[in-house]
């Protein structure tokens, strides 16, 4: 199932896509919703971020290739940081280049969407607590990241966490999917989640030992090598195999 969150006629709701038609979900996707009436095509509505997380938990240096390009050893445990919920935007939403930064980078990521409250999970219990997966872009003010020595400012600006275009609930193997980032149609990143230092089950389990994960919370699993800056006017595209393409302009 592909789950969307959308605005249509002044109303915001959840839906599922069958073919090229969105059907309303009666209830929310975390509580066994029923499928309702047809709303229209994805082009006939405004697609929003497919969930409303209380928090976005992101992971640094979780691809071997990215750790190498950054000149770091592989982490012994997941390197976690938080992005605020106010950073979340949906597909086609503008990403605002902050005035205080001189370098803003894209970061293509597979995003995990939590479906059930999760606390203290063993890795084997993780799949039952995942609703599905979507595309994520961990937009980063790279100069501020280096200057600050910690990542809250560089990762936390409003609009710095595009998600979408929808949640796929039946991704066959999240630890074996290709990721691509394109800027203005030019490929900048290519990777596969088989290069993850800590796979999805290990990440969710580890994070759940620290904090309770609520339905709708998002985990960004890391980015492969190939990071570089974007400029105002650029179009960023994050494509994850089996999910789709997340597209956002930089303004």
Key terms:
4 helices, 251 residues, single chain, mainly beta, 19 strands
Explain the overall architecture.
With 251 residues, the chain is mostly beta strands. It has helices spanning 64-69, 142-148, 152-156, 200-208; strands at residues 2-8, 11-18, 21-26, 34-40, 46-48, 56-60, 79-83, 88-89, 104-105, 108-114, 130-137, 140-141, 161-168, 178-183, 186-192, 218-220, 229-230, 235-240, 244-249. The strands form three sheets. Strands 1, 2, 3, 4, 5, 6, 7, 8, 10, 11, 13 and 16 form a twelve-stranded mixed beta sheet that branches.
Shape: globular
The SS-based structural class is mainly beta
- Low-confidence runs: none
Q: What is the ordering of alpha helices and beta strands?
A: EEEEEEHEEEEEEHHEEEHEEEE
Mean pLDDT: 96
- Terminal CA distance reads 33 Å
Strand content: 35-45%
The total strand number stands at: 19
Number of helices: 4
Proportion of residues in helical segments: 10-25%
Oligomer: single chain
Describe the sheet with the most strands.
12 strands, mixed
């Amino acid at each position: 199932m592909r789950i969307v969150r959308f605005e249509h006629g002044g109303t915001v709701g959840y839906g599922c896509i069958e073919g090229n038609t969105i059907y309303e979900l009666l209830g929310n996707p975390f509580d066994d919703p029923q499928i309702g009436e047809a709303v229209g095509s994805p082009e006939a509505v405004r697609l929003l971020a497919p969930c409303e997380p209380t928090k976005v938990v992101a992971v640094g240096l979780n691809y071997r290739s990215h750790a190498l390009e950054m000149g770091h050893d592989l982490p012994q445990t997941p390197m976690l940081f938080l992005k605020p919920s106010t950073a979340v935007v949906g597909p086609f939403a503008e990403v605002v280049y902050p005035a205080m930064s001189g370098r803003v980078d894209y970061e293509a990521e597979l995003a995990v969407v939590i479906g059930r409250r999760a606390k203290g999970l063993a890795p084997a219990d993780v799949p039952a607590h995942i609703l599905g997966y979507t595309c994520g872009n961990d937009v980063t003010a790279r100069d501020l990241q280096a200057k600050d020595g910690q990542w809250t400012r560089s990762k936390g600006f409003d609009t710095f966490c595009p998600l979408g275009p929808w949640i796929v609930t039946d991704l066959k193997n999240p630890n074996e999917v290709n990721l691509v980032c394109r800027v203005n149609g030019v490929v900048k990143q290519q990777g596969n989640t088989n290069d993850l230092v800590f796979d999805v089950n290990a990440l969710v389990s580890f994070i759940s030992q620290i904090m309770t994960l609520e339905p709708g919370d998002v985990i960004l699993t890391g980015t492969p090598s190939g990071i570089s800056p974007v400029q105002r006017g650029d179009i960023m595209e994050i494509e994850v195999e089996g999910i789709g393409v997340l597209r956002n302009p930089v303004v």
